[in-house]
Amino acid sequence: MTEHKTLTMSDIARLAGVSESTVSRALRDNPIINEKTRKKVQQIARDHHYQINESARNLRLNKSHTIAVVMLLDPACGQAISDPFLLDLLGNVADELTKNGYDLLLSTTQVLGEDLSPRYLDSKRADGMIIIGQGAQGQQIDALAGSRKLFVVWGADRPGQNYATVGSDNKKGAYLAVRHLIETGRRRIAFLGDSRHPEIEQRLAGYHQALAEAGLNPDPTLQVETDFSSQSGYEATRDILMTEGRSFDAIFTVSDAIAMGAIKLLGEKGVRVPEEVAVSGFDDIPTSAYCTPSLTTVRQNTAEGGRQLVKCLLDQLAGKEQRSVVLDVELIVRQSSSGESA
Amino acid sequence: MTEHKTLTMSDIARLAGVSESTVSRALRDNPIINEKTRKKVQQIARDHHYQINESARNLRLNKSHTIAVVMLLDPACGQAISDPFLLDLLGNVADELTKNGYDLLLSTTQVLGEDLSPRYLDSKRADGMIIIGQGAQGQQIDALAGSRKLFVVWGADRPGQNYATVGSDNKKGAYLAVRHLIETGRRRIAFLGDSRHPEIEQRLAGYHQALAEAGLNPDPTLQVETDFSSQSGYEATRDILMTEGRSFDAIFTVSDAIAMGAIKLLGEKGVRVPEEVAVSGFDDIPTSAYCTPSLTTVRQNTAEGGRQLVKCLLDQLAGKEQRSVVLDVELIVRQSSSGESA
């Protein structure tokens, strides 16, 4: 008797032999779906006592039923989408939009120009935008924010910022990881990342907080600028390892990809991880649990991130006040800092 | 004097402070871009002698300038997009569509129903479709192929198939990897993957070919069905390792994610890789070079895959005959099979 509570849109899709977004449209009697399919889907829903969210339905009347997702790329990287974390987040946003009956117009760009709003919103090609990434210094989005605020951004919530963000508690995440490294006896902890990005600036603040609490002075020569790639982590680690007189017993990196590059270099140079140098990443991408040694990291909740980005935007479209969301993070201790099997 | 040859659309985008797709539209005088921006972009292009591809421009007149990219998901996996290889491919398709002035309408689905064509093509919301994944048994797309063939599929080219595919030479890839394992002295080689997928069926054929050439009989108890995840590789390896009397000295897996799961389990059980068991993956995802041990694998060329998928579709839209493309693959030998640093 609980069947009507557990049946999902995906179940109806399978029963009807159509996609989830067709189910969503059919249930809202969208004429884009042919009548036969609409009736079939509606009958299955009725048979199983499936409930339609009416407020969501009303919200979308006379709209494009499409959200533009703009992924901001690092110009230094060249390739389109390469960061496993951002791809994971994109997958979750796609999931969530599908569940809400929206199509996803995907755009990758190296520049958040003023052309975004005319291209997607003024032209009615999309009802709103989700922007993934703030760019170095976060300046580009401030220009956008002058226009109608039909967008939400994945990134860091900063003082004085005039747009809504959804993002992780970056400072807390870095603080937890670095405090853990200190608690396991480390004193000379390197920081690998590019603090011109607002999210990384917050992680650097967490790193400094943990050091300060332990009475340790940060050593600027152990703070090395990298992009988000494994190659960059590999090269940065080689640089600090090869510099005469620069010693370290741990590395905190701002992404798991960077950490994997660091671990590879240490392995090649015969430095044992974690016995001689402990390593922590950030993100908890799917492969981090399966590396050898498995990777200590800070888990960002991409499933919740996808949900909150979509919810925040749909709330705005419904005329509600925009409000930034900071997601909690979790320290995941694995072999690269503890030596124990995870 | 070669400046006009090396300036890219991305360079113009940076100079004009707009996105690449705005540059593409402005160069084609698309009225969706405001006149001031159009003139600015066109002036920069003229100043740098940038050449516009006129045939591409004509092709797109009176079209939606949008391609639907449909990612077929494994219903068993639950989460939207989780395979790092497919995400990498998606990034390259996005790149290539942007370069050609197209927007990308992204859709994820567990079912390739007959509703795809009405939803995207008949409704004029997209000019064509790129479908990533054929699904187990490849049956779903055969149903689609009855309609107008304005789509191309990433996957396996099979006899009697009535639609165009772009995909890797799966049989050759598996053959190269397994032959390499045999050449390094392995005789009992396990196969981890789900051969109901057309691409995996071809890789199984390559595995059998390499064994047959070496005079080895395949042992059906060493062929284990997995999905594409690390977790599945971990569990499958535990199963064969724990089964009384089942011995093996190598594992060929159909994805790098599966291989990482296998290596993790072997490490936990004290089995040395590659000394006792050599492992080869398939894909060459970015993190494969940075695992410990680094992963021997078969490289699929996702950059070329993205280019060919888009080219194949645009050729069809221009009325040219459709033709499947098989991309060459490359064996990448790293520590998990050779023990040497890569």
TrEMBL record, chains A, B:
Residues 7-61 form the HTH lacI-type domain. Pfam families: LacI, Peripla_BP_3. One of its GO terms (molecular function) is DNA-binding transcription factor activity. SUPFAM superfamilies: lambda repressor-like DNA-binding domains (SSF47413), Periplasmic binding protein-like I (SSF53822). It comes from the Bacteria. Keywords: DNA-binding, Transcription, Transcription regulation. SMART domains: HTH_LACI (SM00354). This is LacI family transcriptional regulator. It comes from Paremcibacter congregatus. The lineage of its organism: Bacteria, Pseudomonadati, Pseudomonadota, Alphaproteobacteria, Emcibacterales.
